[in-house]
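Record 1 of the preview.
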Amino acid sequence: MQTQLAPEFQDQPDGRQAEAVLRQCVHCGFCNATCPTYKLTGNELDGPRGRIYLMKQVFEGQAPTRTTQEHLDKCIGCRHCESTCPSGVQYHELLAVGQAAVDARVARPWRERLLRALLIKVLPSRWFAPALSVGRALRPMLPSRLQERIPLRPPMAPPAWPDRKKAMHARQILLLKSCVQRGLRPHIDASTARVLDALGIRAGVVRQSGCCGAIQGHLGDLDGARERARRNIDAWWPWVESKTPAEAILINASGCGAWVKDYGKLLADDPAYADKARRIAALAKDPGELLPAWVPTLKRKLGRLPPEALGSFTFHPPCSLSHAQGLSRAGQPGPIEQGMRELGFDVRLALRDSHQCCGAGGAYSLTQPEMSRQLRDQKIQALEETEPHMIASANIGCIVHLQSGTDIPVKHWIEVLDEALTRHASILNTQG
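->
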């Protein structure tokens, strides 16, 4: 697509990035066919092609309006359009700089400004867990629509990490010091650490690290997102250059993993961090990427369990896993589905639209609750048609969002694996 940047964007990093993406687009519209928001509204401006046109206008010098901002806000950031695009347009890169450019020129209503400021400040901070506890205590007194936004505590035992004295393995993998997940489902990190322990790998968390920056990035605060990335790189770097370096940075929230894998692009124009960011991005792994290498050891671990002890679940591949990380594709089982089936689990997918977005989208369920709820209900209906005893996913946002609309337990797939390993250990203890 021919693009002529306005003078204010010429020779600027964001302008160059926007121009590069815009020139890839041929405006064919194939992307609209898989866009969840376009499918809901039927409005061209609620699809990728329309939003690209709106952002093109802004970078060419046309003043954005509140309407421009609203149509960009409705984008979930699922990146399904990128999986469909025949030209390989990296839409998410344009959206990141486009939203920031629009927000710098269009004032939001005060309620939106307050909500976004709270999300940016509270969700990644140590105040999130206490705020969540207060919200849960007040939940019965709130209107039903607000109750839905405050997830209940899942009925699980307190998370227990492996005994450090017994888990001093030579191999080590770093875990992302999660923020939202730590408050909502700390069991996921504990389960990941226990699975790694069973594999002879020590899980470590660098205290100085923190939120990956995705929340800021998705809400238009790119400067804040970059600062988060630099902080994590500084925290992880000694472990990267150590004589016994960590094998990987394992990120069990696929949305966070997708963001960390983009650190190289996020900091490409920062001479002090560009090379480090690319190296960190290469080390970032989703557990699903490593599962195929783990399968032989895990099969030996689970060998004494009867097949029915492993059970079944229906898997929802998050958009950040499928479209951002490319670890699951429509019509083809990804490494998680394949690996868990090889271990003996009965893994199902929704019979229709298995890779369609559930509507979680990071903070999307809080900023666009109506559209998010519609997409969630459609996804749950498709999942429930498989008559599942359990639903599993790979991203904290999807897990909590889906759980808010169904009584069927929704877990991270690594929790399911951890529970099977725990049952195996119990059998060994009984026999011993």
